[in-house]
Protein 1
Amino acid sequence: MKQQATGSQPRVLAIANQKGGVGKTTTAVNLAGELARRGRRVLLIDIDPQGNATTSLGIAKAALTVTTYDLLLGGAPPETIPLASGRERLDIIPADQELAGAAVELVTLERREWRLRDGIAPLLHRYDWIVIDCPPSLGLLTLNALCAAQSVLIPLQCEYLALEGLAQLKTTLERVREHLNPLLRILGVVMTMYDGRTNLAQQVVDEVQRYFPQLICRTLIPRSVRLSEAPSHGRMAYEYDPHGRGAQAYALLTDELIGREERV
Ligand code: ADP
Ligand code: MG
């Protein structure tokens, strides 16, 4: 079943949008889980001080000894930082509130945009995919993710003004490409919380389709109560409600993104 990933370097994918509540974490967690189910060795990196990806996998923050903070600030050897998630082939580098401090401490450090890239270098051979869940800002933490990644996936909520802020995000991505990471590319734009019963949702999808005909993912992630309940149980969608529309949509999205990323 396992399609061999090309080359020995993993795909490093940042899930980014400076807006909060658009589905970044839900997408990062479920994509990571589905990739692991498809035989890929996956590392999920939580680089948001809110630590929602960490909690979503059922990991108690109080018990954490090493986190993304240590990866960025050199607080522990990188090889010792990933935690087993309790799912086959899925590890996580968790985050907690301490990471908010890193955003400040990094400012005066050398290679401040490259700390994540440097930190994961010794881990690359262990994984086929590395998925990074970004915070809702374009600050130094997100910048570290964009410098460590080869590609970005942008979740957009199917809401009025979904495209607002996207210009700023694109400018940031262009600046990163120009000055820091020329190989960075946008893998796709994924529409989340799609409600097919409303005209608005379809209008938003149509509009994004016009702006990004190449980038918009075919798979729409439906608005689903089950998707929003799963994290409070520490479960991914396929664990919580395997036949639900949300879980199925993330399975399809994963196939679509594997097709885009592992092609060639
Ligand atoms: P972000 O990481 O961009 O802030 P989240 O993934 O945390 O966004 O999603 C924000 C909130 O919306 C969370 O409570 C989450 O459970 C919920 N949510 C995310 N995707 C969906 C969806 N497709 N349907 C319903 N609720 C969703
Ligand atoms: Mg989040």
Note: The two ends are 18 Å apart (CA to CA).
Protein 2
Amino acid sequence: MIDCSFGEPERGKGMPIALVVHGGAWPIPDDQVAPHQQGCQVALASGWSVLEAGGTALDACEAAVRYLEDDPTFNAGTGSVLNAEGDVELDAAIMDGQTLAYGAVVNLHRIRNPISLARSVLVGPATMLASDGAERFAIAQNIPLCDNKDLVVERERLLWQQWKANCNASLLDLKQTSPARSSPQSAGHDTVGAIALDVHGSLIAANSTGGTPFKLPGRVGDTPLVGCGLYADVLVGACVCTGWGEAITQMALSRRAVELLEHRISPQLAAEHMVKALGRRVGGIGGCIVLSADGRVGLAWNTPRMAYAYRVEGRPTAWGV
Ligand code: GLY
């Protein structure tokens, strides 16, 4: 019989503060390992300084993800992959494990830090805002717009030019083998995310992405979809995903990982089980980070590499690529 006895919050005084960040699961080339590692470590440090000073998990996650969005190494904010039309198009989301509220933004242009806009949506009248409406909401929130070209880096512009030169299919030819409809394994790059537990007992999950390389304009992956790219429930824990968004969405991966925590499966086993299921059930590739409400960490991926860093109060910092 399934153990469903997870009705009461487990967090309270004496629980550790904790922060887990990831910088994407994909075949990170050797020459990009060091910048991925460094970026994750600095993002962790920027979020950790918030938690250590008694700040909120919300502020810590925003700080960590903003750093990763600003670091052109990562596929989020500046440095994002380009869609089939050569544009940056961004998605992000944030979820509060206490209230189960979430805020998400999709198909964004001209927003340097989508995570900050998602945070504004979290406390606003909607749960998800798209495209022009999201931009108008940003202006109303005094979040400045940039030129979308400011988010494009030379590395991605060259990759798009190479792809375009070899791509004869019409954009809307649904039979084309674009990375948006098949595995983006070879195209690479994927998503950033964070989960934090604070001294006040809050649990927050957050993520941000440029999506899959050369995606159809308007395509939305798992990242901003609650239960797919992220889920947080302070009663048990949280999960944030990275990888092929179509497959992760089909699996409702993050919600299912949290459900395993509800059945008292450890975060590590929950992460491993769900990533195995992703591969077996839908041929998906990617990874996830999991943090239980009592500060235990789980990490798993089925790609050649995933960039991550984490810290739990009273224990040394851990990282890897
Ligand atoms: N995992 C990000 C995306 O597929 O859009």
Note: The longest helix spans residues 30-52.
Protein 3
Amino acid sequence: MGYLHSRHEALAKAMAPYTVLLSSGFPQCRNYPDNTYPFRPASHFLYLAGWSAPGSYFLLHNGQAHLFLPPYTIDDVVWSGPGESTQEAARRSECTVHCTDELADFLHTQGVRPESICALPLPCEAQNESFEPLLGRSPSLGHELDRKLALALVELRLHADEQAQAELRVACELTVRAHLEGLKALKAPKEGKTEYDIAQAMLKVVNGCGGYVSFNPIISTSGERLHQIKLGAALVPDRLLLVDFGAESSSGWAGDITNTWPVSGRFSQRQAQIYNLVLEAHRSCVEALAIGVDYAQVHRRAVEVFAEGLDKLGILHGGTIEEYLNSNVVSLFFPHGVGHLMGLDVHDMEDLGDLAGYAPGRERSTLFGWKSLRLNRNLEAGMVVTIEPGLYFIPELFQAPQFMETVDKYVDMQIVGPYFEEVHGVRIERDYMVSETGSVLLTPDMPTTIEEIEQFMARA
Ligand code: GLY
């Protein structure tokens, strides 16, 4: 029995007596219908049926898994080549294979009523109309049956099975290799180097083995702009370069790590202070990872380390650690969550809103910083998470009226001043799988301490 078959069995058990119907989705249009972004099947479909053509459907009915593939016309053959053979599709998907032309009749002859079919919305709203002739409605997480399916898939995908673990290791290894090439490109002598040079070196690794990126790369000397994807700035020697880049393996699994490197090869004193503080928070969070631990407390641990460290540097003043924590002042320097789930999606299953990231009964905070925490569950064996604390110096935050009182009370703007220009932003992110022993690092062999990075950059 193959790994897909085990997934089909587990889902069938959770969803009996209902019928499950998932679409692989369709290519997204770039600027006109024939010019599309590269096609990638929707992740829930991919999890159950593997990589299939656009417009395919996965059906789970009476415990049996079926794959419906779109018919190939002679024009398709001319423009795209012959599609997968039925035998090949059946072998790799572990499903009985049919043609999508037969789907409606199949449901009819099997006596499947539209009201007993569960489906999930595709990430692109317009594409959900493809379900209407079969369901008489669009899939929606507000629909009781669809929500039941979403929760069943969350339960399965939250825990990486053996195959998922193997695939995630491939994606993480590719991600590390790309970062190493990025670091080499940073230290290589070249006139007029820009962020593009680093991106080019990293993308070459990923594209070179049939992979892709798991999200738009963030390669920026303005690390305080958390997700700035615009590239092109010059790599000037006194700046830090923040590189948040993840590979997607050729079968669709994600990696995601962030490094912050000194363009000159050496950290300045202030850069080193902040880098070491972020690294301390990172290590403290990793020490906390274990089965049963509340991930929100892992985030809190990073906040505590930052409160103490920023107080020692004199950046925070005028309060006790408890007062800093209660005032939420640390979120002005750390305005995002400490990490997220990772799997087939870099933020795994975020297409389901917070159904995967938040345990039942838990809701997003409305507090600045905390509202961006994407994972709030007790950890379980097999969950794959990122740990990515960061410290940022975002000038606008310290002038925003809503934070003025907190800034006046607890931030020493004289001391913090030079950090805006000299540091900008530092984030250190690695990927971990929760295990019986605490956690397993999926992205080893990456220079991480200041000494390791400086030595790597100094080597010829
Ligand atoms: N590493 C990019 C993200 O987590 O969104």
Note: The two ends are 51 Å apart (CA to CA).
